[in-house]
Design a protein that fits this description.
With about 400 residues, the protein is α/β, with parallel strands linked by helices. The protein has 9 helices and 26 strands. Helix 6 links the parallel strand 17 and strand 18.
Amino acid sequence: GLYEAPSSQLYKTHTKVDYMTVWSPNNPVQNGMLCIFQNHYYQPLWTLVGAGAKQLAPSSRPTASVIPSGVKWIQSRVQKLDPDKNCVHLENNQKISYKYLIIALGLQLHFEKIKGLPEGFNSPKIGSNYSIHTVEKTWKALQDFKEGNAIFTFPNTPVKCAGAPQKIMYLSEAYFRKTGKRSKANIVFNTALGVIFGVQKYADALLEIIKARDITVNYKYNLVEVRADKQEAVFENLDKVGETKVYQYEMLHVTPPMGPPDVLLNSPVSDGAGWVDLNKETLQHKKYPNVFGIGDCTNLPTSKTAAAIAGQSGVLDKTISSIMKGKTPSKKYDGYTSCPLVTNYNRAILAEFDYNAQPLETLPIDQSKERLISFHMKADMMPYLYWYGLLKGYWGGPAPIRKLLHLGLK
């Protein structure tokens, strides 16, 4: 979908606009197809939906209701970006020229890249919190669990919200304890990564929780196949080429491989991997000065989270304003991102960090500790900030609050 400037004039096959955003309402890319969703989703809530702590309905609102007034929403698929001609090609031979372009296409889920998985979701024992179609299957599998392996996966690709694959693991473990099934559950986290978390301070805290709750973690194990009829999950050992291991499961939560939308692959605006190629401080394209990017579709070397997008939005606002006035952008993005690591039904670790994987905490307390306040920020405050702050342009991240709470010293 596209945001079109309100002052533009629309013609039958060609639209001229001064300012445009190539945009998708929260990852409408599924199985290689870019669909126009009529609903917009606050996906961070799905961690709690999959664990039965929240209902699915509050995560959704009509897309039209969150688009600013005075903005035209062109409901058409973007087929090609042509920055050399300042033009975007759409379906039905329509094209739109622009003066400034913001690319915010999100990323693409690739359930189909795991053999047997798409049809495996017909099984009541497999779920994924990453899709509107499969998040409630996670809760169903959790409720139906009797005994055996509960397996949680992390793929060998960049993902959005890298903490989410283990959040549902901690919540599932807590649910098993609450329902008296913990002694019958063997909880396994198979991750393609070599560490539990990329910031040492929070990794240390998570490893303590993992040890205390008797959770098994296998590093460099990547899910490649699901045999739903046999309740088997096949993992490749990334340290030993060609070696695989088969696990029986009673419950399986899958984090799918992810990648850039098809329209960005081999695009002049993208790097070799298909991500929009940006200056990491200004969010301006490295080659095209009137092209900008934000969010999961970019190659910014930070975690792909809603919190990162909030921080980026404040910088992008200043960058574009400066460029439009013929000035050099001075506001810089430091890579701020946040990941509220939910560890129980009333506790969370509030991880905040920058490009250098250094903690950049807002509150004047140790946020690596499990806290009730961190959970309520995740479950109650952040959805409100999203709907009424970020989407309306009022929330550019917590930097001003951090400066105030730390007396300007951090």
